[in-house]
Design brief:
The protein is mainly beta. The protein has strands spanning about 1-10, 15-20, 25-30, 35-40, 45-50, 55-60, 65-70, 75-80, 85-90, 95-100, 105-110, 115-120, 125-130, 135-145, 150-155, 160, 170, 180-185, 190-195, 200-205, 210-215, 220-225, 230-235, 240-245, 250-255, 265-275, 280-285, 285-295. The chain is globular, with a radius of gyration of 18 Å.
């Protein structure tokens, strides 16, 4: 049984990305109005506006030092967390920035122009540019044990690169028609979700052979995350679905009209608080909702 714990309201546009900061027990969200908002969810229902830019913000990544923002117009913003000021700003992609990653040495931006740019953290300079596709790069997932990064594109392909070297190892063509929106490495598998409303399961140990196809939602699968017990997916069909992590069997679904306080529009993003076993979901309905699975 899924219980709605809280509804966080304040965004004036669709919520495109939610990130949970486990160190400070805060969540950060960005949206269509160009806001970056901080929420102390255990102490308040109200968010604090951290930054505002004149564009829709699609992508957010949070490092110990920086907030990394990617916009609809392809602008990349680096905001110093301690000082609260933008240290770097540049239009770097055409067609938007759909995802951002950071590691110890680099930032990575995934663009609507099909390019992956790796940035030197020390000086905010482009260290490497990969021309991967003629369509948007929508998402990524990293498997540190294998030293690989998977990149999902709107050309229907998943690209497997070595990580952090970024040499192409494999292109999985026709992974989802027409776009790959979500990727997740979990328990020796690569899970992918796409506009075709399906989740596909790939085996990295067998050169990413397709092992299973699941009819997951009615419309596009927008996000995939894992918890100690579950895989959780969200969709343009307004639903969130919990799956058994081992068997990938559907367990329960939060759906408007059937579950109390469910989202009324597309569910774009998911985040998870391991310590308190809380799920956060962000939606086109401009809200962030908190969920907890209860024993029946």
């Amino acid at each position: 049984m899924i219980e709605n714990v809280k509804i966080l309201q304040g965004h004036e546009g669709a919520v495109y990305k939610v990130v949970f900061d486990s160190v400070n027990e805060k969540i950060y969200s960005v949206g269509g109005e160009g806001w970056l908002v901080e929420w102390k969810v255990r102490h308040s229902d109200h968010g604090v506006l951290i930054a505002r830019v004149p564009d829709q913000i699609f992508a957010l990544s949070v490092s110990p030092e920086y907030f990394l923002l990617g916009s609809f117009q392809g602008n990349f913003y680096v905001l110093n967390r301690r000082e609260g000021k933008i240290e770097f700003q540049e239009k770097v992609h055409k067609g938007g920035i759909f995802d951002i990653h950071w590691d110890d040495h680099y930032f990575y931006t995934f663009g609507g122009d099909g390019r992956l740019i790796r940035w030197d953290k020390a000086n905010f300079e482009k260290e490497k540019i990969l021309e991967i596709s003629n369509k948007s790069l929508r998402t990524f997932a990293i498997n540190k044990e294998r030293g690989e990064i998977a990149v999902g594109s709107s050309d229907s392909s998943i690209y497997i690169f070595s990580y952090p070297d970024l040499f192409l190892k494999k292109q999985i063509e026709g992974a989802h028609d027409p776009s790959v929106f979500a990727l997740l490495y979990s328990d020796g598998r690569l899970l992918s979700g796409g506009r075709d409303a399906r989740i596909r399961i790939w085996n990295p140990d067998e050169y990413y052979i397709l092992k299973e196809v699941l009819d997951a939602h009615w419309y596009a699968v927008y996000d995939l995350i894992q918890t100690p017990s579950f895989i959780i997916s969200s969709s343009r069909d307004k639903t969130i679905r919990w799956w058994d992590r081992t068997q990938m069997a559907p367990l329960t679904t939060v759906k408007w009209g059937e579950a109390e306080k469910a989202h009324v529009h597309s569910v774009n993003t998911l985040a998870y608080d391991l310590k308190n076993d809380l799920l956060f979901s962000g939606s086109d309905d401009r809200t962030i909702r908190m969920w907890k699975m209860k024993e029946k």
